[in-house]
Amino acid sequence: MSSGTLYDKVWDLHRIADLPGGSTQLFVGLHLIHEVTSPQAFSAITEKNLEVFCPERTIATVDHIVPTESQARPFLDPLAETMLSTLEKNCKKYGIKLFEIGSGNQGIVHVIAPESGLTQPGMTIACGDSHTSTHGAFGAIAFGIGTSQVRDVLASQSLAMKKLKVRRIWVNGQLEKGVFAKDLILHIIRQLGVKGGVGYAYEFAGPAIEKMSMEERMTICNMAIEGGARSGYINPDKTTFEYLRNKPYLPKGKAWELAVKWWETLSSDPDAKFDDEVQFDANNVAPTITWGINPGQAISIDELIPKKESLGENDRQTAEEAYLYMKLQPGEPIKGLAVDVCFIGSCTNGRLSDLKAAAKIAENRHVAKGIKAFVVPGSEKVARDAEAEGIDKLFMNAGFEWRKPGCSMCLAMNPDRLEGNQISASSSNRNFKGRQGSSKGRTLLMSPAMVAAAAISGSVVDVRELIAKNNTSQK
Amino acid sequence: MSLSLEFPKGPITKIKGTCLCLEGNDIDTDRIIPARFLKCVSFKSLGDQVFADDRKEKNGLHPFDIKANQEASILLVEKNFGCGSSREHAPQALMRWGIRAIIGYSFAEIFHGNCISIGIPCLTLEEYNLTCLQQITKEKAGKNCSINMRKREIVYEESKFIFSIDKGAEAMFKSGNWDATSTLISQLEKIKDIKAKIPYINNFES
Ligand code: SF4
Questions:
Q1: Whole-Å CA distances, A289 to A191, A286, A292
Q2: How do residues B163-196 score in pLDDT, each as one tens digit?
Q3: pLDDT under 70 in chain A at which residues?
Q4: Is there a contact between B181 and A147 if contact means CB atoms under 8 Å apart?
Q5: Residue of A428, A430, A431 to test ligand 1 pocket, by largest number of atoms within 8 Å of CB
Q6: Ligand 1 atom nearest residue B85's Cα
Q7: Residues in contact with B41: Cβ distance below 8 Å, sequence separation at least 6, in sequence order
Q8: Using CA positions, which residue lies closest to atom 2 of ligand 1?
Q9: B110/A259 CB distance under 8 A
Q10: A155 closest CB neighbour out of B85, B106, B181
Q11: How much is the pLDDT for A435?
Q12: What DSSP assignment string belongs to A387-451?
């Protein structure tokens, strides 16, 4: 059993009662909801004649189904319109704040809560969405829940939860230029496996993590769930506090000082006990890209698609399924593989720094012929900030489409989707079969800069080569 | 699909039915129920849509389409079943199709929790036993299998297997309190006490 970790401290603070069978009733400090996983929870509340216990601790946004071209109401898709209007009705009825489209603060749930300062160190955060692990970047315990649990949180601001074990993932060194947080987390998942984290919370720590910005840290924690870990977190530090300073949902003056003081006590103690520890070296990470049908099926850009024999026994069956589905041959290089669609966005990589990294590659270049490339900012704030820096124009001049915020082709519940067996270079987090809206569609996950490089080249390339060209032309 | 089955209620002690085998590791919830079917405000119609894309691809030969499996209520899976998205639509779709218990080698965490909260026990077997059970299912399709939750026992014709189950889940199914809401709201006073002590809710004053 772990002790003295941030996870233990935050857990203890929120523990309400021990339940029979070893679970704990845990207080939920922040509850985030969206249109897809909440309607049935509200129906249950209404049917059972329950109240929403702490409506002020739930915040709603709309992200999964929003169209990214015209957002005029009613939406063209009547089902999408029903979902949004249901959310609106529920929020109104129960007194829950909704970050509406056009309000300036709407966006993907895992983008809006951090950028507005709703997400804070030491919180327990739950949301009916598996990528809730993202918020762990601030030193919160954050986890995805199902709809029945959304109902439970609405009714009681608490959950029946099992305490996880804690695995510390210590990352030494530093990422080289052209290698991003996304590459590191894909690398880690590849090594530990997509089920390696089941039963664990991942604590990401070490010099490479400490050097990261909050946005990079969010990319790392976002994908903890792809490694099977329901929660991922990073101990809060100066970078965290500086990011949070002056955010709308944080206090100023004396209360801010007190907040920082408290946050400083939350980090895992130097002698904390972990249930497991592993080490990585960031210096060894190259741009990494998936070739298969789960995020663990990843290789670095210079590697060949692995042969079955080189994989562990457990992975062979899925590999065969992946060769077939992806129409790729073992032993083939991934570099040079032609793509059809390039998508920059999602809660993994739809923040300002992601768009900037991609824009640097797109600048003074043009999307290759026949490629559909589009950028979907993670939130209205990200869009606004990017537009203020002229990033929208830069992308459009390079032949990318600049869209309105939402989840978009990360899961294709809106009109943005692959067709037939199109292949996409995507900055999102899941390459599952059919994930991007076509039951035969294929997804290659990579960093936003790599997606931009693929858009320019029309095929998978090593973004470091384009960066090198940037540098020589500047000389 | 076996629509005649009622949704689970109260203590879950015995489950009886025929088994259906679904091979493959890391079957994610996007495959169990593709995202386009999440455009709904109720779970009602999900039963027909379970594994929609996989079934279309297999053109009638998917385990959920094979005639002999239509009455099945026990699903046999392999490793890390239900990984990926937290959508409760996945177990809801399985339940509405007729599944009342899932037996496998391992389950993804959120999926597992979702199954508990709607009353679908997820039971785990050692790899060897799971392979045996799959084998028997293939050989004796249509024969009844029974799960005894108290004895942690799966009885299938002459064969008997001891399964493991998460302790918390076991206690909940036994008591019938697997739908956690009532337990949780019985503590409202205590929840208020905890809330009053949490720094970020109380202006960080300790
Ligand atoms: S961007 Fe993708 S992963 Fe993130 S919340 Fe939206 S659909 Fe889920």
A1: 13, 10, 9
A2: 999 988 998 899 888 888 988 999 999 999 999 9
A3: 474-475
A4: no
A5: A428
A6: 8
A7: A39, A40, A43, A82, A83, A86
A8: A410
A9: no
A10: B181
A11: 97
A12: HHTTHHHHHHHTT-EE--SS-GGGTT-SS----TT-EEEESSS---TTTTS-TT-EEEE--HHHH
Amino acid in position A460: V
- For helices A214-222 and A109-116, what crossing angle results, to 10°? 150
pLDDT above 70 for B119: yes
pLDDT digits (tens, 9 = 90+) for B76-106: 999 999 999 999 999 999 999 999 999 999 9
Q: Which amino acid is at A252?
A: K
- Helix ranges (DSSP H) in B98-198: 109-118, 127-139, 167-175, 181-185, 188-197
The interaxial angle of helices A352-362 and A463-474, nearest 10 deg, is: 70
What SS3 class is residue B69? helix
Average pLDDT over residues B58-72: 95
Q: Is the pLDDT assigned to residue B4 strictly greater than 60?
A: no
Helical H segments across A288-405, by residue range: 313-326, 346-349, 352-362, 380-388, 391-397
| Beta carbon pairs, A and B, within 8 Å | 221
Residue B141 has pLDDT above 80, yes or no: no
For chain B, list the domains and their CATH numbers: 14-177 (3.20.19.10)
In chain A, whose CA is at the least distance from the CA of B195? A27
Q: A232 to chain B nearest CA, in Å?
A: 14
Quick: pLDDT tens for A343-388: 999 999 999 999 999 999 999 999 999 999 999 999 999 999 999 9
Least trusted range by pLDDT, from A86-90, B92-96, B121-125, B140-144? B140-144
Q: What is the pLDDT of residue A332?
A: 97
**Which residues are near ligand 1 (CB < 6 Å)?**
A 63-64, 108-110, 129, 131, 346-347, 407, 410-411, 428-429
Residue A154 contacts by C-beta under 8 Å, 6 or more apart in sequence?
A31, A41, A42, A45, A50, A52, A53, A58, A94
Question: Tell me, what's the pLDDT at B206?
Answer: 67
Q: Output phi, psi for A33, to 5 deg.
A: -130, 155
Three-state DSSP state, A275: coil
Say if residue B142's pLDDT is above 90: no
pLDDT given at position A155: 97
**Closest Cα in chain A to B56:** A439
Contact predicate A452/A344, CB 8 Å: yes
Q: How far apart are CA A354 and CA A446, in angstroms?
A: 12
What is the distance between the alpha carbons of residues B165 and B170, in angstroms, rounded to a whole number?
6
> Which domains are present in chain A?
6-276 (3.30.499.10), 287-474 (3.30.499.10)
Question: What CA dihedral angle connects A236, A239, A241 and A244, to 10 degrees?
Answer: -110
Alpha carbon distance A408, A415 (integer Å):
8
| Test site for ligand 1: of A34, A62, A63, most ligand atoms within 8 A of the Cβ | A63
Q: Which ligand 1 atom minimizes the distance to the CA of A109?
A: 5
